[in-house]
Design goal:
homotetramer; mainly alpha; DNA-binding
DNA sequence: CATGAATGAGGTTTCATTCAT
DNA sequence: GATGAATGAAACCTCATTCAT
């Protein structure tokens, strides 16, 4: 008697997740090219062949991870758009970034990898200079809303701080004084401090 | 007519430099694993075999580049130590970083690569969390010298801004408003502004 | 309600036939090696696993088809032996060959495949030079019966025409002027024409 | 001191030929899919890797062989166009076909393979029904020139005899009474015999 | 010093076959 | 009887490295 549709679905999901988890970890650690299908299979405790039951190719795996990552970024940003107060928005972005980065280091390492090398082609549509600019423009709007004197410059500074912190969190691991720095930055973008920049 | 010692030496240096230049460019573009010896030979317009006359292995090439990079960083930092005024020091670091990054994008992309992946092993002695911490401590000293209230936090913020800017310069290429942002940051660490933080 | 023996038998036969049909089609189209068990399962709208319920291996499938093919050839030839008149025999062979070929192109393509490559070993006992020779000898006998001057040569010519036509029917598909050529050839082996060769 | 351009060229040609020879033999014997790169390397007494120094892929090898084959066919047909007398033309075609087939069995086996399966795609432009029709039309013209009664039918018969003989030569190897049959067929298309068909 | 042909280990991918359900 | 997930051997292909010249 064959398994039910449902049982098969569950098995498939479990294996797929297992493959994605191992891949994410290894890609983040050793890069896309530095990770072999064998490595993934070993880590996921399955056979090499099975991977191709779930993904068309090694590239397809990294694409799946990448899409997931973009979705997550989207989901992270959404609640922020609903906030009204500029200061709150900025602080929330800082908090989310710190939280997200420290909780998903592998994802972000992979993200950096994606930006550094156009290996699995396809991504350029998103990970390109224009994509960044859009972010900067959104930040600039927030600072404009806040009525500060140099919204554009502050936006770029803000973005630099965010990305710089991310890097430090990724590379320094537990040595990074996360809470302390976060609080310092949060204060920097508090209503009180923003007012001084008007 | 046999060539003189000197001529040999010159040829050697020229070829070696050519190999290093091509390697740097390609590693930065496609990563270490993504670049083949063939690629390098083609770009350097020499034969594959010749590369092994100058370098023991592909790894040896990347190590040479890496050491060169570290030296450059050292050389960049040296004149800074001779400066006395904290503000001048910080401003000089900012200027040098911007200058250096925008003029040597390939180096810095490769540097990021090194940090992201421990491919050609050996580097861990330098590119590790402790290495970063040392930088942060040096920055902290400068801010302490400047007599600001929260030297540690400001040091981390400073480092974040530097690294964040670097990333943006690397990834946004000509779209990045280099001068504008640099000036803004320079002003942020001017004597006048620093005084406000005391 | 348990199925009756008969029902089981029927199911078995139906599935088996389905597998054989799909296999024949695909083997003819893409060759034995070029057809995967997956392909067959998909075409037969059953699961890969089920195929192994009916056949021990991929090779066993092709063997089954092959045996079926030989039987058909046999069955096709039998009524011919009962004919007495040489001309009638030859004409009947021509007609049957044309009919059979155009109605079972897949079988004949596969047959050619078998001859071209000894992939699934076993067949050599039949599809070998000697096997052909036997055919030629039988043809020669017919021509001898007909009393023609060069029975052996005519037998070889006859065989060549048959096999050549087969190839053309297979490869030219509907572009081949089947009826026209058949009539021409039939006339060539009519009593009247054969008499001229005496 | 490196080898001269010329030396390299010679080495390359030798290896390439070696690979093509082995490939042709094996493809003819076991089919394209049935022959592995390992098989070819072993037969050519070189390493697997080297094959890719000369051909981009397994498919590229078969394409090279195929193009060579088409060229040869072309070259074989050319001198025939210069003959004026229809009988001479037909006889020459018969002789060339027999000669060419028996001397290059592997090529023709492969050719049949190509027609049977569209494996390495690309070829359809040539090996298709229309391609055959063109041949038939050319034959028809010759028979029309000869002034026979049914030029089209005779053209198709002629083509069938040619292809049928080819098959028999290929499959019966030395058992085939080559000379005998050839002479019989040659006589069939002699001026004297053709005259009878007017 | 310089060349590129040649090797072979290892990477990606395919697929016949097995097996738990 | 039936399913498709899972395996692993073997296929195609890449590439760092060696070597004869």
């Amino acid at each position: 008697m064959p398994r039910t549709e449902e049982q098969f679905h569950e098995i498939r999901e479990r294996s797929k997740t297992q493959i994605l988890n191992s891949s994410l970890k290894l890609f983040a650690e050793k890069g896309f090219k530095g990770t072999s299908i064998s490595d993934i299979a070993k880590d996921a405790k399955i056979s090499k062949g099975l991977i191709y039951n779930y993904f068309e190719s090694k590239t397809a795996i990294v694409e799946a991870i990448y899409l997931h990552l973009l979705n997550e970024m989207q989901r992270m940003m959404e609640p922020i758009y609903e906030l009204k107060d500029p200061s709150e928005k900025l602080q929330r972005i800082v908090m989310d970034t710190v939280k997200y980065t420290s909780e998903n280091k592998d994802y972000w390492k992979l993200y950096l990898n994606f930006m550094l090398q156009p290996s699995p082609v396809k991504f350029e549509e998103v990970l390109n200079p224009k994509f960044f600019q859009k972010f900067f423009l959104e930040f600039e709007e927030i600072f404009t809303d806040a009525g500060v004197k140099e919204p554009k410059n502050m936006a770029y500074e803000f973005a630099a701080i965010l990305d710089g912190m991310q890097m430090h969190i990724l590379f320094m691991d537990n040595l990074y004084p996360l809470k302390e720095i976060q609080n310092y930055i949060l204060n920097k973008y508090s209503k009180k401090e923003l007012k001084k920049k008007k």
